[in-house]
Amino acid sequence: xxxxxxxxxxxxxxxxxxxxxxxxxxxxxxxxxxxxxxxxxxxxxxxxxxxxxxxxxxxxxxxxxxxxxxxxxxxxxxxxxxxxxxxxxxxxxxxxxxxxxxxxxxxxxxxxxxxxxxxxxxxxxxxxxxxxxxxxxxxxxxxxxxxxxxxxxxxxxxxxxxxxxxxxxxxxxxxxxxxxxxxxxxxxxxxxxxxxxxxxxxxxxxxxxxxxxxxxxxxxxxxxxxxxxxxxxxxxxxxxxxxxxxxxxxxxxxxxxxxxxxxxxxxxxxxxxxxxxxxxxxxxxxxxxxxxxxxxxxxxxxxxxxxxxxxxxxxxxxxxxxxxxxxxxxxxxxxxxxxxxxxxxxxxxxxxxxxxxxxxxxxxxxxxxxxxxxxx
Length: 376
Prior knowledge:
The chain is α+β, with helices and mostly antiparallel strands. It has two domains: 38-75 and 118-372, Beta-galactosidase, Chain A, domain 5 (Distorted Sandwich); 80-114, no CATH class. 28% of the residues lie in helices and 31% in strands. It has a nine-stranded antiparallel sheet. A hairpin with a 5-residue loop joins strand 3 and strand 4 (61-68). Mean pLDDT is 87; it is low at 1-27, 351-357 and 359-376.
């Protein structure tokens, strides 16, 4: 009996180790590619529930496309039809009588919104990083590590190995970017902000870019959602200087960029917040911390949710190929780990969406906000 209890305890510990992601052997849950993204659908997403970005990973011209969850077209307005309640009993009656065309006609005339049929979710714009002479690169690698919610890319130019890391932090409410290399004084680039709805772009000082703007009008509703975006560039070594609406970094050893975004949105009917004050507050607080500290807090916070669900279907040699090749060949190959990757990727949205006290995931949050607010 005693031996049976010991054996049961050993089996239970082995089972728990297999199910608990923090104690199990790390699997390779990464989307990875051997070339930069050329179009939006090839870029890799990061997000913290409020802020989101698509990172392209181009060595010469990096583009980080920025989103903020409350930036929608128009402003507070009604998208209901005041005649709908009165028409509802008659519509029901027509449906029960099988008069579907008449019911549809009555719905279109009395229940479809008279003015606004739905607002549009809109991009804030882009942080652009331009690197001279980085067009000719080798050893390119780009990945999204979904176990830690980290984007990174590495490549080589003229014998120098470069690395970029990007993540969206929930604890600190900024998007953090780190640029590094294996040789000193090798980081030189120009940084700028631009966007389709920008009203102004400028370098506030030698370290900070700012872009402000307002949402577009849509279906007769004037754009009223204001935004403020700031990118603080902190260099280790080298020189940094403003140049109009750009900032130029020359021969730095390492650079950290913190991106903060805020709008004047309070709720579906109120746009009275100070977006400038909000944006600066996030940036000021985050810039007091090192990149390592920001990253550690981000990973710890993220993994509290990610590790609640874990699937392991095994692996095969098919996993040695880039993700786009694996997807293309999936119907002709045995690649169970791609199923695992797909599962873990999409369960992230459910994990964030249904976690008490946690904002919805970037995708789920956008859809939910659209369907429950009078602005969308």
